[in-house]
Amino acid sequence: MSLQAPDKQEFLSRINRLQQALRAQGSDGFLATQHIALYYLTGSMQAGYVFVPAEGNAVFYVRRSIDRAQAESAVRVEPLPSLRAFRLLLKQDYPQLFASGQEITILTEMDVLPAQTYTKLAQVIAGESGSRSVLTDGSAMLRRLRMVKSAFEIGRIEAAAAAAAEALAEAVAELKEGMTELAFMARIEYGLRIRGHIGLMRTRSYNMEIMTGMLGAGDAAAEPSAFDGPAGGRGLGPAAPQSVSRRVIGRGEPILIDIGCCIDGYVIDQTRMAVIGSLPDDLAAAYKQSVAIMRETERLMLPGTPSESLYAAALTQAADAGLSQHFMGYGVNQVKFLGHGIGLEVDEWPVLARGFTDPLEPGMVIAVEPKFTFPGRGVVGIENSYVVTAQGARQLTKSSEELIIVT
Amino acid sequence: MSLQAPDKQEFLSRINRLQQALRAQGSDGFLATQHIALYYLTGSMQAGYVFVPAEGNAVFYVRRSIDRAQAESAVRVEPLPSLRAFRLLLKQDYPQLFASGQEITILTEMDVLPAQTYTKLAQVIAGESGSRSVLTDGSAMLRRLRMVKSAFEIGRIEAAAAAAAEALAEAVAELKEGMTELAFMARIEYGLRIRGHIGLMRTRSYNMEIMTGMLGAGDAAAEPSAFDGPAGGRGLGPAAPQSVSRRVIGRGEPILIDIGCCIDGYVIDQTRMAVIGSLPDDLAAAYKQSVAIMRETERLMLPGTPSESLYAAALTQAADAGLSQHFMGYGVNQVKFLGHGIGLEVDEWPVLARGFTDPLEPGMVIAVEPKFTFPGRGVVGIENSYVVTAQGARQLTKSSEELIIVT
Asked: Which of A253, B81, B292, B405 could staple A218 via S-S, CB 3.0–4.6 A?
């Protein structure tokens, strides 16, 4: 499970694809600031900024550590002593853009970049007062670029999947009546961590947090929450209002085990169900229904299919089973998607939701999570992650789909 | 360790202090957006926005979960169906500000709010085109407000300190030669988690991540990193370039154990040193020097003392000991502070650094971390968290300061 660093060519080809997108849109460059984007484009997550011109070579301007960046980065590294120096460096390296007095359009990740830093960087780009050069939103361009994964990236997601499967199997062997959600989760997390989980699940959305995942039993799993997912969980209190609580796991309750694992920066996302004893018949039937939706989604997951049509098909199946009101949350607390891209972050594109009309492409990696919520009783469902291939969906999740029964 | 929720009065008094600050500055209101600010001001971390007018009552506009917010929030909760509806709601609730056509100044947390969301909210505040109302930066006002902790907050930090001390003692009992940094950290993290650690260490700075803390042995601890701290650690690879690595812990190496724990939203931050066998004399002497700096810092930690003078005194002590070049990192990789505020986030104010001239006040909680870096050999140092009282520093960290020796 040790990291095999990808060839530097991999990063250069990502930059190349970004440059094609810049030129297609008539933009002059991309200024990447988020640590995840820096890693994606250069192979190094050191502190600084990457500038990618629409034509020519990218440069990684590094505050610290310069040594590490030089050892890791596929693109040229330049020390960045201060923000003030930044414009001078850009003028030197890109005279045709920054020293020519022309009006240029530079994109950046406005969906994650704090407004304060954005304002400072926009001034750097605008340069002398009077210039009409702009720093504007390129979030979607970068998110689109990252949708399609390379063989290296898929390999890392599979490594995370293997670690998650092992950690889950190990922890389930210790699951017993009277254990708290927290204690069960702690056991899973220990297994993930010793297998190389980096200790974080990175998310893109503002205020979104994932604490390794969400584990919940019975009514606690079914509580509505701020989390933008079908089951947020009760949490440990108002300042940690999602995932596990100190609730004791009882007999006959659905135990939803939605866990992530991040290996070498790449995440897997999966959900399995367990029960001590047996599930009530109607919940067992709903679980089977979630598996049926998964099978149909797999069948539809072909290049060219619009993402949203997978969600639409799942809605129809849920309706046919008489479970519409329970699908992906209950009533007003339903969320409006079936799945989401995963990669360096847990909330990547595409989203399997209305409005995502882009066709699926080979290399997209998608977590599909049909779930049914029964207020006061629990959540049942399943989640697998897949890579889209020319031949259809290839499953990356490695845990058995069987309901885990503890006697 | 179960949460005793503070009286709603606590949150109302925070809002009251914020309103005083708004009026003193001539601003008309504060629009809080970050989940941590929402919790700080209302007692609920559900998704939405809090509007605090300079005069009058605050309202928590909630997207989800409305039920949870209503159960938890000290201020009135209003459902927020969409961003489009937001201005209408504000006009209804604050006609003197939003329906009167006057130019108003509203503050928000531009240090954390993404530029994309900021732009949308600024349009909401500006309202009809032509209005000159502005949404501008109030980050510093909120950070200042949060510097001084209540008895409830200090109690939660002490609960986190107790959990950290227990988890560390438990894990140290299993420390042995040949263990990897990762395995040792996983053991500590398990102990933290079963005691109620929420599974996250929240940070405010863009791109800053903390994976429970930083544990490093020998040369791995001393490697420069992107992390804005005296010791970032080697990490698990380029996409997780800080904290633990898979390096095996050897005999005679300084083991730096810088861990955090978050209970009910509040963090403790502490560092202890361990060694298998014994430390080389010069490193042992440097460790004693870090403890000496801690004692002097405690002595200086009195209300009225400017934060920066604690840093200046530590620099002098390090110089007197001939250790200037090793203090808080080595050479060009030194960081320029001695400590930092902690609370709901790990990187709060005040910072013990040049330029932080504000006097210490009772209720401030500060992590002090004098450390010495020896490239290729390791990092030695200590970190305690304190609350400033009228009588001086009161230590919150509960672990023994003795060098932990494993034979």
From this structure: A253
